[in-house]
C-alpha cells in the first residue's frame, strides 16, 4: 500500500484511473482497492479444468497449513498424518469459535425494520412528554 497521498495519486494516473485531486487518502485507497485485479495463476486454471477446487492457505500459518509444521523436521508419512490431523482439529476449533462469535454478535445487533425511523412523528402531540421521556428525566 502506498503511504503518501501523492504516490497514490501517481499510481492512479499511471493506470489511467480517474479520481478527484481533492480526495483524501482513505477515499483514494477505496478507488485503488476497487481496481485491483486478483492474481490468476496458470496452475489454478489447470486444477479447476480437471474439476478440482483450489484452496489457498494463508502463508506461514502453521495452524492451517500442515507443511509449515514439517519445515524443520524429517518428513515421514506418519508425521504428515499427525500434522494433517492437527490442522483439522484447529480448523474445527476455528469454526466452532466463529459460530459462537456470530451468535453473540447477532444477539447484539439491533435490526431496524421498516417504520423504525427517527424522523417519524409520534402519535403524541408536540409538547407532551412520553412515559419514556419522563423516566429518562428521573434517571438523571
From TrEMBL:
GO MF: nucleic acid binding
Skewed-composition ranges (Acidic residues): 116-140
Tc1-like transposase DDE domain span: 29-71
One Pfam family it belongs to: DDE_3
InterPro entries hit by this protein: RNaseH_sf, Tc1-like_DDE_dom
Protein name: Tc1-like transposase DDE domain-containing protein
Annotated region described as Disordered, given as residue ranges: 112-140
Amino acid at each position: 500500500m502506498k503511504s503518501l497521498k501523492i504516490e497514490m495519486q501517481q499510481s492512479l494516473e499511471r493506470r489511467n484511473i480517474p479520481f478527484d485531486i481533492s480526495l483524501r487518502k482513505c477515499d483514494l485507497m477505496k478507488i485503488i482497492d476497487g481496481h485491483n485485479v486478483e492474481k490468476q495463476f496458470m496452475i489454478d486454471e489447470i486444477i479447476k479444468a480437471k474439476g478440482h477446487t483450489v484452496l489457498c492457505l494463508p502463508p506461514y500459518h502453521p495452524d492451517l497449513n500442515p507443511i509449515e509444521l514439517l519445515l524443520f523436521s524429517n518428513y515421514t508419512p506418519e508425521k504428515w498424518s499427525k500434522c494433517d490431523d492437527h490442522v483439522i482439529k484447529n480448523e474445527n476449533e476455528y469454526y466452532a469459535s466463529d459460530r459462537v462469535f456470530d451468535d453473540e454478535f447477532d444477539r447484539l445487533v439491533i435490526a431496524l425494520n421498516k417504520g423504525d425511523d427517527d424522523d417519524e412523528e409520534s402519535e403524541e402531540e408536540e409538547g407532551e412528554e412520553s412515559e419514556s421521556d419522563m423516566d429518562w428525566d428521573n434517571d438523571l
